[in-house]
Amino acid sequence: MTMDKDGKVIQFTGLVMTPDGKVVKLLKQGEKRPDKLDWRADMKGKVMLPGFIDAHGHVMDLGFRALELDLSGTKSLEEAKSKIAAYAAANPDRKWILGGGWNQEVWGLGHFPTAADLDAVVSDRPVWLSRADGHASWGNSLAMKVAGVTAKSVSPAGGRIEKTGALPNGVFVDAAQALVAKLVPPPLPRDRNSALLKAQEILLGFGITATADMGTTLDDWLAYRRMGDKGSLRIRIISYSSGVEPAIQIAGNGPTPWLYNDKLRLIGVKLYADGALGSRGAWLKAPYADAPKELGLGFMSDDVMRNLMSRAAMDGFQVAVHAIGDRANAEVLNAIDAMADTYKGDRRWRVEHAQIVDPADLPRFGKNGIIASMQPVHQTSDRGMVEARLGEARLTGAYAWASMLRNGAGLAFGSDYPVESPDPFAGWATAFTRMDASGQPFGGWRPEERISREQAWWAFTGGAAYAGYAEDKFGRLGVGQRADFIIVDRDPLLASPTDLRATKVQETWVGGEKVWERR
Amino acid sequence: MTMDKDGKVIQFTGLVMTPDGKVVKLLKQGEKRPDKLDWRADMKGKVMLPGFIDAHGHVMDLGFRALELDLSGTKSLEEAKSKIAAYAAANPDRKWILGGGWNQEVWGLGHFPTAADLDAVVSDRPVWLSRADGHASWGNSLAMKVAGVTAKSVSPAGGRIEKTGALPNGVFVDAAQALVAKLVPPPLPRDRNSALLKAQEILLGFGITATADMGTTLDDWLAYRRMGDKGSLRIRIISYSSGVEPAIQIAGNGPTPWLYNDKLRLIGVKLYADGALGSRGAWLKAPYADAPKELGLGFMSDDVMRNLMSRAAMDGFQVAVHAIGDRANAEVLNAIDAMADTYKGDRRWRVEHAQIVDPADLPRFGKNGIIASMQPVHQTSDRGMVEARLGEARLTGAYAWASMLRNGAGLAFGSDYPVESPDPFAGWATAFTRMDASGQPFGGWRPEERISREQAWWAFTGGAAYAGYAEDKFGRLGVGQRADFIIVDRDPLLASPTDLRATKVQETWVGGEKVWERR
């Protein structure tokens, strides 16, 4: 089954495609099947769906994270410490112990971990571990020593060195992360190749056949090209460069064409208006409920942001701006308003995350063809934290998926992997329940912002394709579209939310070729 | 007509090719022509030759030079000054006046020009003009001021600030050029696109269908990819990266595949062992005859050069080392000797220019599969200068084309454009005469180093293809080769040297498509 271009569900019993992997025809119940066996596979009545599209992920980070120390499943600091010790022992040749995925909120720690915690398990090599949201990193004492961080070090603009008394204690927030990160040896091109292939394998295994890459660096791009040139690119990547410079350096006066049979395109530019809620980097209109002196951080001045948006838009690049706090969202909406007269036409301004929006600003997402690019699972992961950060009274416009649709915004869903698992079935189930994997809270968190099962499906397929100017290429199974589909073990339109979350992808096909199979 | 893979001349009356532009068959005199008209063009008995391959050029420099102020035809400083003034007046929007091609030897000046000469014609904007050989640049006072060059400035390693008394006088040799060059605003990607297309147009107009690009930067490469992605790359580019870093960053663990139907490949790495003779940067075994205290400049220590060669070869990149002076050539030969046991197989070590070789070293070019990549026209341009720099006694191994072949070296010819014109007919005529366009010196300069007309042709076609690992793709018209050919207005095997130099290319075809036509 699939949706048609109007978002209506269509059932079919077979799919006919061209030798180069485009859909020619969907066969209806009872319709004569072609005489000649030009089918590549007999699906034997299994459930076929269009491949999912993740509208917001970080391809290389997913691959690197998978090859590095992964703390994302840890439930306590002690568990994390034993995993770190084991990884260090298993990887004696690694000059730095790198990894991430920790979240002191999940650990119930009530504060950031410290360098001393790390020193207790690894002191012979620098250790540098990023928080689950990427907005903070945690190092051991040797990492700080290598980086020359001392009691005299001051927090840079847009960042914060966490301190105990006068002494840096090992955690670096937002822009302060660079103080240590710049000393980490950069990966070699061969490491980048491995990371890309690893990420691709993970994504295809979740039934994701296309993904936006939010923040492609020049070196990321060169890795995509190496694998594309070799014919090793199986997934489709819609690339948004990390800031304006790489887009211009790579693509010149506007987006690249689609490359490698619609596998890769640099379409736009990713910018940041603020940080994230977990590290109190999200930019709020009023102070944090749990830190009354803090408003979060605007990543750049209003003028700078507008100049960058304008510089990208001038050359026809799509603009995608990360905005989490209500102040940041308002600033981005203001900037789009200010720019709409100059940059007319089909611009598809993207607001990434759009997590906390002042209810007064919600209707503004329906103007200027804005796309809200949101991540359902963030809502369940953040629930406790966001209540603490904002307080009950300011949650009306939080993760407001239904309001976005009601106001006429475009809606595209993703996972923000590797911040969350890329699993689209978890995102899908969350979107129409606002309940987490254990069914909490019963009835859903602020359930008025649930959307329908079909609306959520569309946001993970056709809506996400539209958000990347790819709706003529893929996003549904229809005549002329790329035959990107998956075979799954149950009917996701009939499954309970719990069953939907347990869906297993059995095969993944991209452009009419089987590129992944469950073993 | 063409040569076969053994370098033998073959005459044919027609060429049959596949729809994707590969040669299927050469038709012999009297042989039945295909019934069906699957010919793309009736050449009406004109002379068809394989496209030329320039084994050593600088694609982007050619394009930029063509778009910038061109002083290469100037015969005096006064003529140059009036051209500079006219260009400045015609380009009021250019923030810097950039260009090159000057040669104080041609001007008969006897010394470098000065900043004061430039100030007399342009003083409101910085002026920065490179010497014909690229080994020196000439700026006005404003350029030096912008760069902060004063009487206190000291010459960097590998370079020299020319001074009058204690004061810098406007000319900067070799590495010293960077003092000012780093202040020149870099070209935008759109400027790079324009330069590439301009260079391509010029090269195709000379009948050059493939070229080595000696010193591709990352930004050059990104321009090649932009034009390749758009389908605008018409010429074939065999790319040698500017140093080791870009090769690894772009291609990772070894050369890229051939891209865009064999239009582009990064195959190797270009390194520099020394500078050039004109600016006395070439590294000699004994002092310059006209500067008895100078030996020229080794660009890097022996160890550094070997490390770089080794690092490139380790990942399977081809190594091409610029060596002009006899000392530099000896050092490169030593390095190849030292490396040959470690890096076995088909390595095709390239020595670029190999201009002045100690006769004792000449036989060493026949070992280890070395390719001498030489530029015939340099011999006629440099003749007077090289006699002054070296004196008569040291010219036995100078531009020793015949010795290279006799000793068993591979021989590939190019022009070093834009240092010289890319015109391959000039190079071809020079190679078997050792006389310049005006027939001087009568009988040829050191005529024992002439080679045959056919040997020279091969060095500009099949020999140049072999030098870039492309002999299975192009370089001659034979079954399975790409149909890269040109239509010319005379028979170059019968023409007198003077007539050969006057050959006009009428059409240029690459991969079976007409990509250039004389209008």
Automatic annotation (TrEMBL), chains A, B:
Keyword Signal found: no
Task: Name all Amidohydrolase domain ranges.
Answer: 42-515
The cross-references to Pfam families, in alphabetical order and at most eight, read: Amidohydro_3
Q: Which UniProt keywords apply?
A: Hydrolase
Q: Origin, by domain of life?
A: Bacteria
Under the GO molecular function aspect, what terms does this record hold?
hydrolase activity, acting on carbon-nitrogen (but not peptide) bonds
Manganese listed as a keyword: no
Q: Which InterPro entries does the protein's record reference?
A: Amidohydro_3, Metal-dep_hydrolase_composite, Metal_Hydrolase, YtcJ-like
Protein name stated in the entry: Amidohydrolase family protein
The protein's organism comes out as Sphingomonas alpina
Its organism's taxonomic lineage begins at: Bacteria, Pseudomonadati, Pseudomonadota, Alphaproteobacteria, Sphingomonadales
